[in-house]
Amino acid sequence: MKRIIYIGLWMVILAVGLGACNDQTNMRKKITGKAGELVVVVPDPTWEGATGKSFREIMAQPQLGLPQDEPIFDLINVPPSAFKEIFRTSRNIVRIKISTTVDTSEVKFRKDIWAWPQAVVDINASSTEEFNQLLKKNSDRIVAFMLKAERDRLQMNYRNYHDKAAKNIIKDKFNIQLNVPPGFKVTKQEKDFVWVRYETPDISQGIMIHSFPYQSDSTFTQQFLLNKRDSILKANVAGPAEGSYMTTERQLPPVFNVFQFKKNYASEMRGLWRVEGDFMGGPYINLTVLDAANNRIVMLDGYVYAPRFDKRNLLRQVEAMMYSLELPDQQKNDKINSQVNMGN
């Protein structure tokens, strides 16, 4: 059940929040809290009962594509009486009210109520039954709204603070825009291939960028992309031992979705990587986009190696970099995609 709820959420993330009410109150205050935290304002009896359990099963379900279970959000329960200034600046807030005084049962998506950039969801229901129906109907939107808020914050930081040298190399090589945070460096360049990564003694984060001609719709199949990914990695990403190289862990099937990325045909794949001939491994995310105007495929492959640490937030950082991708001829792509859609 938990897998079903989460699969495909990224396809709706870009559409969620567009109609959210933006209450520009007290914009001078900055958000507080750690990445991935979600404050849930609800009375203790509700939180500890069946209603709270249902909510936790959705908002703390395991993040897919990680080697160990990590929740998509770290939940912090706060009773309404304790929801004071210290909590009101939290980055992500869900307020739950179940009362016969509620006139209209509804879910409200709002931004920047007490701080900036903040995501707030209000779930108001006149009864437990109404709440359960609202949660069932809106669970994907709530999760997507919060995940998008997390990604938007990272991307805003990357737009304002990025490594200009790495960004320029990527632009010169592929004629694409990609915001690369400070600390990430280009460590390898080959024909149609660039590898940028950030290294410390404890963790490694990186993105491999590759492009190749678009030849067939079969490009956007899981098997083709797995094989293509492995061929690129074997040729370009050597492991620490002689003859070792990065590859895909095939024992755990990846999570694969086809969707529209900024109006372009695209796919996303999440799973685990390993090093053939060594013992390294971790999570990866692959974003493959059709650049129709230039008859090519742009493939971004991000990964994390952090054997002693949680990996959810580290992978989200890489993911936000990848999703900052901008193609050079988007207006032409929009026209081509519009013609294709009309033909369908």
TrEMBL record:
Q: Which domain of life is it from?
A: Bacteria
Query: Matching InterPro entries, A to Z?
Result: DUF4837 (IPR032286)
Write down what this protein is called.
DUF4837 domain-containing protein
- Organism encoding this protein: Sunxiuqinia elliptica
Phylogenetic lineage: Bacteria, Pseudomonadati, Bacteroidota, Bacteroidia, Marinilabiliales
